[in-house]
Model the fold of this input.
Amino acid sequence: MIAAVRLPVFDVQRCCVHDGPGIRTTVFLEGCPLRCAWCQNPEAFREGRAAPRTVAEVVAEVLEDRAYYEVSGGGMTLSGGEPLLHAQAAVALLREAKSHGLHTAVQTSGVVPESSLAAVIGLVDLFQVDLKHMSPERHRELTGAGNDRVHASLAWLLARGAAVELRMPLVPGVNDDDANLDAVARLIADHGLREIGIVPYQRMYLAKYAALGLEARLRGVDPPSPAALARVTDRLAQRGISARIDG
Ligand code: SF4
Done:
């Protein structure tokens, strides 16, 4: 029975406005194959901390804000961690959300097997996929894995007609150089897309790292200034890519 399926939910955030269209409730599942140096949700790294919740419980909470979704075009977003680490549980949650007519979005690193994408694709109205760094080596240094699987997942989704929104966590001195921006623009154009969301680096996660006893590799980095963001959006615009600030 779908409603009784359990999910490792470590947080549910209501009234989110950067996790897809409209006003949304974002459900965070623990576990992630990556270790991004700027990760805002390090509590997701270790599985087994969250008390599992049933699909019925989670959807009941999501539906509390149904009136907001209806006026704003919002819905439910599944995030993490990497929510597709739990593909079958994600299917159950998405199917239940769909049975209530909700718009669904999934935020994925793309570092998941094709079978996980295939399991959910028919239940997801929008995939949000991050482009973290275009150099495979830098991607590995910054996240613990290369970017080949990210690009393969992106191509797989687009080839099957999935709606995909690209996003880029923008970290000053890490991935905001012209060479990386130009490579990002080329990849977007190669896929016939024209837009990307820029998610400015924030420092709020540092307190979580301290509380969890984790080393924050980027603690000396400041968020991008308005001028730095304008330089990035201008650079992308010169290459035909529309960049909006998402966060
Ligand atoms: S993919 Fe997302 S959740 Fe996983 S480490 Fe990177 S930023 Fe954090």
Q: What stands out?
A: Residues 87-99 form the longest helix (13 residues). Residues 32, 34-36, 39, 41, 44, 80-82, 109, 143 surround iron/sulfur cluster (CB under 6 Å). The chain has one domain: 2-245.
